[in-house]
Amino acid sequence: MKRLKIKNNYINVIEMNTFLKKLNGLMWKKEPIKDCYIFKNTNGIHTFFMFQKIDVILTDKNFKVLKTYEKLSPWKVILPKKGVYYTIEAPLNISSLINIDEVLTFEEN
């Protein structure tokens, strides 16, 4: 399993790499989100049928941060953004630790 390194902290990463994983995402999950969920080749999302707020990080193919959203509420839409290749759904307050143009780093667990 991969881990995302942010300011000397590590967060487990779950790759949403199948049709069903991408389709369901974090919908219907009631337990607090502790991991990051990475959607490849995804430049827009929605938070329909979600029960909690999340942070969202949009990056290019090299994981350079292009845009972040803090505390995105359920029933919201992020329209597709140009240049975005990865969308990361993350626990609350992760976005505040990341800077625009920062390149995210990952390690194998």
Outline the structure in words.
By secondary structure, this protein is mostly beta strands. The chain has one domain: Protein of unknown function DUF192 (Jelly Rolls, Sandwich). 6% of the residues lie in helices and 40% in strands. The chain is built from 1 helix and 9 strands. A hairpin with a 5-residue loop joins β5 (54-59) and β6 (65-72). The longest helix has 6 residues, at 19-24. The model has no long low-confidence stretch (mean pLDDT 93).
Concise structural overview:
With 109 residues, the chain is mainly beta.
Helicity range:
under 10%
Strand residue percentage: 35-45%
Structural class: mainly beta
CATH superfamily caption: Protein of unknown function DUF192
CATH architecture: Sandwich
Mean pLDDT: 93
Overall structural domain count: 1
Separation, N- and C-terminal Cα atoms: 5 Å
* Beta strand count: 9
Strand order of the largest sheet: 6-5-8-3-2-1-9
- What's the story with the biggest beta sheet? 7 strands, mixed
Count up the helices.
1
Which geometry do the CA atoms define?
globular
Question: Low-confidence parts, pLDDT < 50 over ≥5 residues?
Answer: none
Helix and strand pattern: EEHEEEEEEE
Quick one: CATH class?
Answer: Mainly Beta
**Topology-level CATH name:** Jelly Rolls
Computed Rg: 13 Å
Q: Layout of SSEs?
A:
Layout: E1 2-6, E2 9-15, H1 19-24, E3 36-40, E4 45-46, E5 54-59, E6 65-72, E7 77-78, E8 86-90, E9 105-108
Jot down its keywords.
109 residues; mainly beta; Jelly Rolls; seven-stranded mixed beta sheet; 1 helix; 9 strands
